[in-house]
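Thread: Modeling a multi-component assembly for a lab meeting

Hi all, long-time lurker, first post. My supervisor asked me to bring a structural picture of a complex we are working on to next week's group meeting, and I have zero experience with this. I have the sequence lines for every component (473 residues in total). Could someone generate the structure of the whole assembly? Inputs are pasted exactly as I received them:
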Amino acid sequence: MLNFDLQVIWQELPFLGQGLLTTLLFATLSILVGLVLGTLLALMRLSPFPPFFWLATAYINLFRSIPILLGIFWFYFLVPFIIGRSLGNFASAFIAFVQFEAAYYSEIIRAGIQSVPQGQIGAGLASGLNYPQVMWLIVLPQAFRNMIPPLLTQSIVLFQDTSLISVINVREFMGASRIIAEKEGRPVEIYIFAALIYLLVCLISSQLVKFLEQRTDPKRRRSTETVAVVG
Amino acid sequence: MIEIENVSKWYGSFQVLKDCSTEVRKGEVIVVCGPSGSGKSTLIKCVNFLEPFQKGKILVNGVSVAEKTTDLPKLRSHVGMVFQSFELYPHMSTLQNVCLAQIHVLKRSASEAEEKAVQLLKRVGLEDHIRKFPGQLSGGQQQRVAIARSLAMDPIAMLFDEPTSALDPEMINEVLDVMVELAQEGMTMMVVTHEMGFARKVAHRVVFMDGGSILEDRPTEAFFQDPQTDRSQQFLSKILHH
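Re: Modeling a multi-component assembly
Sure thing. I ran the full set together rather than chain by chain. Output:
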């Protein structure tokens, strides 16, 4: 029972590594595109222009109430049916996945934007900046700083959710692990190894974000500069 | 310079401003006072249309602020505004705070903007703090940065919305001193404040508001010596005797 065969992992490391690279690429792309789309959705949802608000609200509620796995399947089978050809597994999984993640991110980003005091917008507008400039130069930089912890949590969930795309045969880390586990008949070793790798990536990336957060937080710069009277 | 004509404003069915009219001529300093909830902050925010109003007209340098065709950002860039809670941008250094609108609204180059910023920060006595962030400054220092930020736009008039109300007592004077200096240099100013000493020293006229209406609009000395309404007499006796 307890005779672990670690040789299998060593042998199949190139194959598993390839899978991990695919996962990392997929997750990075999803985080970047998800954040951009999520920001747009959040801005639409906060827009004073009603059609934007309704569209974004409907979109967000729809995608937050469908299981992401269903979305991935659906997109994979439905799109070839509509446009007459397949997009390829990776592209199909990516488009489906990012639509969901954008909806998840947008609610966090909306809360972040709303956490910036209204007076900041007033001050920006009073100085002659227009609304988009106020958002871009004043509100969003502060909002994103406030949002780092929840965005990090969501990004870790996203990273783990990428394992779902193995269901449509994208050979990412989870899919690669399963193939090896079945081929070699060594599921225990392989799946423990996979879990450790997921854990490691999450730990490293969250430490990295915390480090970056500390370096950019203006309040923390106090400790490195001489402090004047703080009223 | 600023003409306010019969302005009324409602929040739903509640009327916050009732048929308010007054004006600020070039080089004049007007103090607006009155009990809290009297609409004075709302009125001053109508001047640069941060608060929209439903009736009446406000002209700034001859341009109607409520008109749809008015280039509001351009108009606002000519009218400085200082807020009760400073509203410095916390993610930017003092210097960046003063440069931001110069660069993005007036399209000045970074070096031009910085030169102007340093000169103004010196003027308000903060040349040693240009690299600091708002969180590292006291309230009085923050408000002086906010004044420098507005002055950097070379405004034709300045609006002050209770600039000293959020300050600890010992910091009020450092801000008032800067404002007195501005007034004495001939800046056109509309100031919502409870600082009656400031009003007596530099204001040409005092506007007294209560319940959304302008009850008095008279030369400073006349207002203090002989307030015309019961409300203004009560207000003055309360505010001056402690």
